[in-house]
Sequence to fold (247 residues):
Amino acid sequence: MHELNAIVAVWRREFIVFRREVSRVVSSIVSPLMWLFLFGAGVGGTVEVGGEPYQAYIFPGIVIMATLFTSMFYGVYIIWDRKIDVLKAVLVAPVSRVAIFFGKVLGGCTDALLQSVVLLLVGLFFVSYTPLGLLAAAGIVFLTAIAFVALGLGIGALFESLEGFQLIGTFIVFPLFFLSGALYRLDSVPGWLRVLSRVDPVTYAVDALRGVMLGRHVFPIALDVAILAGFAALTVLAGSLAFGRMK
Fold:
């Protein structure tokens, strides 16, 4: 119970910070909408994907993109908290570092999920899905957020400079996004690119979300979710170990 209270306390602190940073929330929502309306409308004027309007086809990928970037760069807050000595005050509390780590993971996932829900509601103008489909989409987004918040926190625990984290974070997220099939059909790319896409965990998040929203998926949705859950478990384990060894 003591550890659970610690998790809730850390989550609450992260959520309060989230509510106060309105500009960060707005920018994290506006950026994917620009991809959807500007890039999607521009390419969509000349392209359809299997009879599906291009904006509708890429919409699940844009939602996952927003989740990926928000979750991964949440690790910046570890470095920032360390610089202003907030993290030091938290770490000396009589609770395990694992509890603190899980509280931060839940805080980051809450942030990512709330922002993605706004995008999912905007998606009602492009995609017609049922309340059950919306619930399934939120579940996939939450699972994706767990994986990449944990990864971001684990990487953040290894760095002391914001610049170093941002460099590594950018190096990771852009290839993951562009290889995921968020903007194109996986069966329309060269074989070597298809192989790289299949080892990209974001591919399965996009495929699962596209499946529940549009009914279009390359892999069985159960396989997508299983791979995504396995990757999330791996990043949570690695992230908690890195957090536990942080100085």
User: Anything to note?
Assistant: Residues 97-122 form the longest helix (26 residues). The first strand starts at residue 48 and ends at 49.
